[in-house]
């Protein structure tokens, strides 16, 4: 099987963490049947097609012309339903290879997709993007500081420690307003409710034996904090609310897709219909810092892509880590779903501000490059992803691989911050900035938000030359350049 991993740099995050890598991409395989899929009327994902000759039982995503067609096919073929993604007409089911083949020949079935395994992939950073100055000196349409207030960011990751000091306001209120767990994580799942709410105090990152998610959540919305050494840190959107959906440390694509599907169904009221938006704001952006090793071919038929396009149509931006496979432009190594040309779906490369807050630093060596000859594979924009300080716990595996443990403000906050690198760290910077932009203009569309970010990015000169492609000035290694928050805010207000 093709494995997926978190988008953290292995040389900094540690290979031990590769087994706990975070999310960054849907299936990295092209649509269309291969040899073992011959004789099936529907298109078959190559990964699944290669498995059909040896499978005894497996989970499959049955795509239909509509939900009824997919359900009928599952029932007629004898497959057992696991869950469904109603808005995009997909039923997740389990059964034998013979039953899977039968489902692919039922009327109205358009695509059979396999259940691929996936794993979860500082202050100067906010100076480089200009985000800190905007949060301190500008106001949103609501009259509050332009810090992401009134917007929820859904972080699909290993989990979160909602009690971490970086994720609490001065009055003790938690930044995490909804705490959820995806249960469709492996082939043993028997229920149909794949995403469930857990108590707000539950540390889902420790349950996952992760750490990646807590670090990523802090980059999105860490509250202004003075560390034990006097350093002042905050997240990209220090007033935003967080909706954490824990996919565990090691999982399959159905777990991550179930999280995206939950956002699609609940983004307007993530804490339930009875909870006011002032307490639990609508979700306007998702962060996805996970993906396949070595990139792959964009698959428009995958459930991941169908879900993110449905989210864009409903006003929600999707942010992807570009990946940590480096490259030289001779092949595309970027995260496949981030290659989606749909407005409001962003792929983020890693920028290194060289620990000085400079706007003219370097594209990170580990950051995945697109194919130089195909601009559709290039990242959209760069954001700080190297040596990023954020929330951690010293006993969690990914945090333990960090380069520079630091202590928080309280006497018991020992080793509660650490420095980690990867496009996993770059993506949440952009997710937080998207929250700022929606606060600045709540009526903006996802496509307008993307245009504001990519159209105003600072063109730092390190790496490949910029060129005109797809209607923008961009490059195969760093996209349109370093995200520039003040310029993007000005653009979204025009």
Structural overview:
The protein has about 500 residues and is an alpha/beta fold. It has two domains: about 30-115, Alpha-Beta Plaits; about 125-490, Peptidase S8/S53 domain (Rossmann fold, 3-Layer(aba) Sandwich), CATH 3.40.50.200. It is built from 14 helices and 24 strands. Helix 3 (about 65-75) packs across helix 4, helix 12 (about 425-440) runs parallel beside helix 14 and helix 13 packs across helix 14.
Topology:
Blueprint: E1 4-6, H1 10-13, E2 43-44, H2 46-51, E3 58-64, H3 67-77, E4 80-85, E5 90-95, H4 97-104, E6 109-114, E7 117-118, H5 123-129, H6 131-137, E8 152-157, E9 176-182, E10 195-197, H7 204-208, H8 212-221, E11 225-226, E12 232-233, E13 241-246, E14 251-252, H9 253-266, E15 283-288, E16 290-292, H10 303-313, E17 317-321, E18 345-352, E19 362-363, E20 381-384, E21 388-391, H11 397-400, E22 417-420, H12 423-440, H13 446-456, E23 467-469, E24 472-474, H14 485-492
Helix pairs in contact: 3-4, 8-12, 9-10, 12-14, 13-14
